[in-house]
Design goal:
16 helices, single chain, disordered C terminus
Length: 342
């Protein structure tokens, strides 16, 4: 939920940027005003507590206890010393956490990519991140090409960001992040494809400009909702020992999409309908990928790579559409048996 709320602040920033740009007469003034806002962030970092889970992973139990007691006082609840001692003992005796403390980055990457199902799921998840980032930043950059007031278009985009975060908090918790992501990917895809038709037939359509703005905002809403919820889904999919690495790889793939997005917007000058067509088709493909992902709602978080691989195998072996289907599984088992006989 905290990750979704951070996107709400991003939407508010988009709205404030339109106000700042409207009040400033020069791009240098806009850049100076935006840069000054980061001074607040520098001071905030000194007051942010460290993660108790991270402190425990570094064997710093005393500081973790201090942070938890401070959080308990802030929430006006009593800190349970007996429960803390039990959790502390379980953590120290647990063998599941010991590899995460000593393993290098390469060994964690090996754990993520060694398993057939874990590897395919991670690559598919990275593809979804890249496509979502491509569409998300592409729609932001394309807000000035709608033919509407650029300040109003950007501010409305910020409003869509805030609304998507509010909806995501309630809907994803009730119905699960996978279903919510699929629905919003399809919604964003349909909006982009309809915009393609409007661009082609806009000259003979009286309300083309207004309709294009509405479709752009619908697409922005869907892309924003997906972008925020992907963080939650990725953290729920992968095991604790490789969760942050999987999130980092997915975020890296998203940066590739954000690098490509300006080129797609630039291509719109030569072919007006190409940009929205790319957004619509790629988003629909991303929805197809996420539809095959395992459901994470009301599921326990996985702790080890072997536990995650077994869970992914049980899910994908039942899927008829997935490349990790039972037929593929039988082919792999037959190949292994043949190699052992040889």
């Amino acid at each position: 939920m905290s990750g979704l709320m951070s996107n709400f602040a991003f939407g508010m920033g988009c709205i404030l940027l339109s106000v700042v740009a409207l009040l400033c007469n020069d791009w240098r003034q806009i850049q100076f005003a935006v840069s000054c806002s980061f001074i607040i962030s520098i001071f905030i970092t000194f007051f942010l507590p460290k993660s108790p889970r991270w402190l425990c992973s570094k064997l710093n139990y005393d500081e973790a206890e201090m942070v938890l007691k401070k959080m308990a006082r802030g929430n006006q609840v009593e800190f349970d010393d007996y429960l803390w001692q039990n959790l502390l003992q379980d953590d120290q005796d647990s063998k599941d956490y010991s590899p995460a403390r000593s393993e290098s980055t390469m060994s964690i990457l090996k754990g993520l990519f060694t398993g057939y199902y874990s590897r395919n799921l991670l690559l598919c998840n990275m593809s979804v991140w890249m496509i979502t980032s491509l569409v998300y930043f592409g729609l932001i950059l394309n807000s000035g090409n709608i033919g509407f007031n650029v300040y109003l278009s950007n501010a409305l985009g910020g409003v869509m960001e805030c609304l998507s975060c509010i909806v995501a908090i309630f809907v994803s918790i009730r119905y699960g992040s996978r279903r919510f992501i699929v629905v919003n990917l399809v919604l964003s895809s349909m909006a982009c494809l309809v915009s393609t038709v409007i661009i082609q037939c806009g000259e003979n359509f009286e309300g083309a400009q207004t309709t294009a703005l509405v479709m752009a905002m619908v697409g922005r809403f869907g892309a924003s909702a997906v972008f925020g919820t992907l963080f939650l889904q990725t953290m729920e999919l992968f095991p604790t020992c490789g969760r942050t690495t999987a999130l980092g790889l997915s975020s890296m793939a998203a940066r590739i999409g954000s690098i490509i997005s300006p080129w797609t917007v630039q291509a719109q000058r030569a072919i007006p309908w190409l940009c929205q067509a790319i957004f619509g088709t790629t988003t629909l493909f991303a929805a197809f990928l996420v539809f095959q992902f395992p459901e994470t709602r009301n599921r326990n978080l996985k702790m080890t790579f072997s536990e995650a691989e077994s869970s992914f195998q049980a899910h994908f072996s039942k899927s008829k559409l997935s490349c990790c289907s039972s037929k593929r599984l039988n082919d792999c088992e037959e190949l292994k048996t043949t190699q052992q006989d040889m």
